Please model this.
Amino acid sequence: MSPQSQTAARTRLRLLLPLAAVPAIVALALAPIGQAVLRAAGQARPHAPDLAVFAMLSPAIKIHLLAALAALVLGAVLMAARKGRRFHRAAGWTWVALVGVTAGSTLFIASLNHGKWSLLHLFTGWTLIVLPLAVLAAKRGEIVRHRRNMMGLFYGGFAVNLLIAFIPGRALWLMLLG
Model:
């Protein structure tokens, strides 16, 4: 096998492994409540944000939700903005801090699994490992690795977790659809 085809095979594996692992983790985590989730999803009624629901959340969930929403917006701006400029670096450090707070706050949230961490906390571990590695890659000038890690965190982490956040019964579901 040529070096180019070996690199292509590694790249495919790097893409396919998370595409298979993420749905498996989510399915296993939600299996015990799957039917209740599907029933509640059928009763979704979009409405203006119910701030009374937000007021009743624990401090950890409030911090998590606000940091995640800020990181989602700033991350979208960073994905669209030109890279390597002063704005990218300053906003990037802010995004790293927001993602760190978002991931770190999940260590204090265990309501989905009756007071214990769930399989979804694997995403927390992944984020807390990959985030500093992505920063280190940028510091070392490994731009391709930095880009791949940061895009994985943004698209994989936020796209997947945004869907998870709208599981019936969770805070965003109750605030906007419940």
Residues 18 and 156 are 9 Å apart (CA to CA). The two ends are 54 Å apart (CA to CA). The mean pLDDT is 85. Helices lie at 3-30, 34-41, 51-55, 59-80, 86-105, 121-139, 143-165, 171-176.
